[in-house]
Structures are given as structure tokens and as C-alpha cells.
């Protein structure tokens, strides 16, 4: 794979890659990555459960989405910082693992779905999708994020 070829020299660049030099860096970064993922999925699950009408029924969906947006962006920033850093520990190995590729695929799909369909479903009523689309959108969102979680867990079982 072309990407694996481009990234194969990263682990050997020890002065530039602390993961390759100190054994404690990887678990610390991975812990931050997992906490960031918990924050990301936790906030999105709250939003999806509200779309399903299971929590916070007294709150407008658009207000909940607006309140959670900074937390979602912070979590995405954590993921986009720690994820590539973890990948740099052994990119050739990760790129050969089907669970990693599946995680990246589901993550891409989940983010696209969140920032298109879910954003439309949580917009103020005058801009939002029809109410009938909210529940199916929430179920698809939950399913995509569950796939990201499961694929990520399988990466760790290698």
C-alpha cells in the first residue's frame, strides 16, 4: 500500500518520535486517545438519545446540540492529535490490520453522517429535517459509532 510505504520510516526517526524512544509515551497517549473517544462518543450518544426521545425531553434538540458542539469539537481535536501519533509508532503494522482499516472507514462514515444528517436533524425546527427522519438518523449514528468502538477494541487484541 502506498500509504504504508510513505509512513514506513517514521518509527526509525526516533529523535522525532518519542513513542519509539520511551516505552511510557505510548500508554499515556493511548489513554488520552481513549478518554477523547469516550468524550466524543459520550456527547454524540446524548444527542442521539435525545433524538430518540429517551433523555432530556424537556430540552430542545437544537439547544442540546449547540451546548454539546464545543465538547464534540474538543474531542475530535484530541482524536486528531493522538490518533496519528499512535499510528506513527508502527504505521506499516497498523495499516495491514483489517480492524484498523475498518475503524478508519467507520470513523470517516460516522463523522460524515454526524456533520451532515445529524447536524440537519438537530438544527432549529425551521431548518431541520422532517421529524420522521430523526429517529432513524439516531439509530444509524449509534450503529456507526458502535462499529468504530468495536473495531478499535479489536485493534488492541492483536
Give structural notes.
With 158 residues, the protein is mostly helical. The chain has one domain (9-155). Helices cover 73% and strands 0% of the residues. It is built from 7 helices and no strands. Helix 3 packs antiparallel against helix 4 (61-87), helix 3 (25-51) runs antiparallel to helix 7 (134-155) and helix 6 runs antiparallel to helix 7. The protein is elongated. It starts with a helix and ends with a helix.
Helix content: over 70%
Helix-strand sequence: HHHHHHH
Helix segment count? 7
Show unreliable segments.
Answer: 2-7
Radius of gyration: 18 Å
Q: Indicate the multimeric state.
A: single chain
In total, the number of domains comes to 1
Distance between the termini: 20 Å
**Helix-strand category:** mainly alpha
Estimate the strand proportion.
Answer: under 5%
Shape summary: elongated
Describe the sheet with the most strands: none
Mean pLDDT: 83
DSSP summary, beta strand count = 0
Describe the structure using short key phrases.
158 residues, mainly alpha, 73% helix, elongated
Brief overview, please?
With 158 residues, this protein is an all-alpha fold. The protein has one domain. 73% of the residues lie in helices and 0% in strands.
List the helices and strands and how they pair.
Layout: H1 2-7, H2 18-21, H3 25-51, H4 61-87, H5 91-96, H6 98-121, H7 134-155
Helix pairs in contact: 3-4, 3-7, 6-7
